[in-house]
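User: For my dataset I need records formatted as: sequence, then structure tokens, nothing else. Please produce one.
Assistant:
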Amino acid sequence: QVQLMESGGGSVQPGGSLRLSCVVSRYDIRSACMSWFRQAPGQARAGVARAVSGSGYTKYSDSVKGRFTISQDNAKNTVYLQMNNLEPEDTAVYYCAARSGACDSWNPSFFSYWGQGTQVTVSS
């Protein structure tokens, strides 16, 4: 079955950087809508970045625009999230998600496949 496996989370100080990776198995990401979501304790899951590799389309939430970058390595079937200038408000579990078809919504219910999540903690 389709599998998404995130890695790269950890603890960093404010202003630091992390790069998350999402290795995808048995699903071709080249034309898929690939997205990163995050969920902090007591809060709903929220999208932060999404992209369609084949079209060059990317979209970021206002809270991360200019600090986070989503990218893909199609040869490795892997999606990345480079996170710079991290803030305590970025603390959350980060999830990779995939869907086919339109890539025009942050609604988590539209995404068919999910990883297990990786914890990011930003604290001094």
